[in-house]
Design a protein that fits this description.
Structural class of chain B: mainly alpha
Helix content of chain B: over 70%
Radius of gyration of chain A: 34 Å
Shape of chain A: elongated
Mean pLDDT of chain B: 85
Low-confidence stretches of chain B: none
Number of strands of chain A: 26
Distance between the termini of chain B: 29 Å
Strand order of the largest sheet of chain B: 1-4
Oligomer: heterodimer
Radius of gyration of chain B: 20 Å
Largest sheet of chain B: 2 strands, antiparallel
Largest interface: A-B, 56 and 51 residues
Strand content of chain B: under 5%
Chain lengths: 706, 325
Amino acid sequence: MSFSTDIVRWRYKLLPDHVIGEVLTKKWVDSAIPFLALTLLVLCLGPFVPHFFEWTTLGNLARQIAEFGLIVLGLAIVMISGGIDLSVGSVFALSVLMSLIGMNVEGWSAGTGLVAALAVGAFCGALNGFLVGYIRMRAFLTTLVTLIIFRSLFEIVFPQFSTAIVTNMSDSAVFEYLGTAQIGLLPVSFLITAVIAIGIHIVLSRTRYGWHLLAVGGARRSAYNAGINVRWTIFSAYVCCSTLVALSGFLFASRIGSAASDVGAGLELQALTATVLGGISLGGGRGTVSKATMGAVFVLLLSNSFLALAISGPGADLVLGLILVAAVFLDVRWVKNRHKVLRSVYISPAYARMPDSVSTDPRAGAMAPNDKLRDVGVIGLGILEGAEDVIFDRDDNLYTGSRHGDILRWFPPDYQRWEVLAHIGGSPLGMAFDRHGHLNICVAGMGLYQVEMNGTVHRLTAETNRSLLSIIDDSNMKLADDLDIAPDGSIYFSEATTRFEMHDWYSDALESRGNGRIIRYEPKTRKTRTVLKNLVFPNGICMSYDDRSLLFAESWACRISRYYFDGPKKGRVEVVIPNLPGYPDNINRASDGTYWLALMGMRTPALDLSLEMPGFRKRMSRRCSEDAWLMPNLNTGCVLKFNEQGEVLESYWDQGGQKHPMITSMREHKGVLYLCGIFNNRMGTYRLQGADPSFCGVDSYWGHRS
Amino acid sequence: MPGFPSFRLTQEEVIFCITVVLIGAFSLFLPKFLTAGNILTLLNNVATLGILAVGMALVVVGRGIDLTMIAVMVIGVAFSIWLSANGLPFGWALVVGGLLVIMVGIGTGTLVAVADVPPIFATLGLASVVYGAGRIVFKSDVVYAPTGYDWFTFLGTGTIAGIPVSVCAAALLAGLVALFLRKTRFGRFIYATGDNPFAARTIGLPTRPVIISQYAASAFIAFLSGILMCAVVSGINTRLYNSTLIYDVLLVVVLGGIGLSGGQGGVRNVIVGTILVGVLTNGMTILNVSFTAQNLIKGVILLAALAIDAVLNPRDEQTSQSGDI
């Protein structure tokens, strides 16, 4: 091996570039950008702005966050529902005015004043919501006009009370407490906002109403067609928004105790900048409380720093305007291109060097190609769809899965009649009977399931322990593939890959990284644990006859290994066949104490070579459509028989795949070999010469019927 | 629907009827309303508004919106005056100012057309950028026009056949834009782009240049109206940016019946909307309604117009796009 290949090997071993793609799939990436921006802002401003980190500044900031944060949260709710509310500044002014008239002039109690202020807000919100939600006017223009109307109302009413507001003081102790008191280091108003923010977070992320909001904002038409009351949802969003703004106005009034004629002017632009900076999409459907909060803090820090640095109003306008445009630009680009970036980054091939394969030279013996599988019987032609595996019970009934998520039962002797035993969903793959005669099934996309012979379906497990350092959530099961059951009843099953869904199986082949694992499910304790990790597409699993180890196939590595789950070698893995000529799929027991193995495809020199060139495969995945990628030779059917030592004894071929391309599984039952393929529309039957005519797989595991 | 006689009014017709009723009512109850002098004052008062609205209409027809117009107007004119105060002849200063304004328009258009920023936010943000940048240069709120240019004075106070020059200028501009929209190929491109940008792009129209040139044109038209305003009151108040003038412009455009979804309407709608606002303002001023109350009434009327439009031409849940605010 030359030095340059060493470099390539170590580069792909040491630099985990698949992590980039996995990070991009996480939801929190959306929040990471505003968080970084905020950190950067603090780092940039902190050293320059006087008193930036002092307690009084921070205390003052906390009160401002309390008031401004409520407004931003309100606006965020409306924006998540797909609208916009520009009237927040005017509603704020009106509610401040209402609170001050109530508290200072009329001398109401704090409760009455609060209710009055909130009522003003709710009324304004109801008007907006009625116009936008029920009459379906355009949100931007409508709230622009209500901005003018509410503002005009404020300007008409305010001069009549302005002197009375300034000359009187509220005599409510609660009102004063709200404005000035602290609990510990934190102002009361800040705590109130924090509680509300947590409440809104729970509503948005955990409740039906929050989901409806997100649905309406994300895809209004689909939400409507799904039966969500779109109009009511939008209406309520505006009412929520304006009520929160009114609460903010009440807190502001309690803190300041008076008002100027320009209170709340330009607030809508600030709040809008905050939400957009936080990464709440303008089109709706995206947004969280944490994003809104970060945006609010960002804008407040910036405007406070401008004040502290004595930068004039126009200068601040300039910067805020630039930031708004830049934030919208980034948001639009991000939403538009995120999935494109993800697509081009996610597939990240690894370096692999394939060993020279077992010879298939006609003179070599057992692996010599033939066409024995051309003359086979056919079951279920045109009815079977995606039967990956097949199994028989002691009464000769035949069971297969289908890509529709059904488990089919075919009746002997000729397997012409059939029924749907159970519907699971997902894509049922490997199957095995346990001691009690229940059928255990690996279902891609769902996990491990059990079907009783009366058709009842149980979910055994869909979750395993999450690895500490894995970025994608590997606790759920993307592609449970094949299983077998140990004598003590615990189920070992393979999960082929944790990075791709089943329909993307070939992307995993292109990566050829150890993305898969073997998982153990313990029926007695109902515990699920990953026992082997970093396997290259672990596929077939079969219990060895020694009752203390199992054989498993790693497809893209073209090898069969043995894992000891018991005995003196417990926990060890030994390679049994290191260099198959094709990609192994399921392994099952044969009647003579050996094993059957299906090869789903044959290796090709070009593909083998490309495994040593990860950069080439990456370019291929980016620049070619998937149907133009290098593929294994799937147009050959091959089944072979091997023994405990890993010697290949016999092989059965269908060259050119005329009857059975891509054989994924086979099962011997009473002298006949049944052949399955996940993309085939049939099942093949091949009569074996000299095989035990009474052999049944179930007996081989659990003994003869007593 | 074929087979049924259609009695549905377009928004333009609704507004036209309201205008006629208002004119009738004011003529009956306000003796000073229907005099030649008052009508000319009315038209003179809305001339700048009308020009701005024509510029806005150009953008709205192409499914955009331009909120930078007032900022561009005040800063462009103030910049030209500042140049002439620093020694450049006023005529050349206006040319330079005009070029600068067109550059700003191209910048806005690029942000919308190429960078895909929604026009509402691009122009909202850029308005405060333009205004902030300008105000850093000019310290005072009000910038006075230089004196001693006869043509400039004529523009502000002269008359042609008894009609104020500003009204003539507005009429001329409206006529030119109407011809441009209706008779030229590029004008039809604007309608096509506004009606369905994706389809326009698919059939090979140069949608991006079309959009960019719309914003350049609207910025330039805003600048022209600024010159006119400056000539009339011999100076420009940059605080105008903080007023509700931009909303009045939008009010005129939307009232006249140019849908914000683009592709429909024309200069005639702008004229109808302008006259309604002019009549309303004039009548309320004669009635001695306060400025804030005028704002309130105008706001309510705009809201009513929008609501009527929404009821007459309702959005369909199956075809309206989400995110279409």
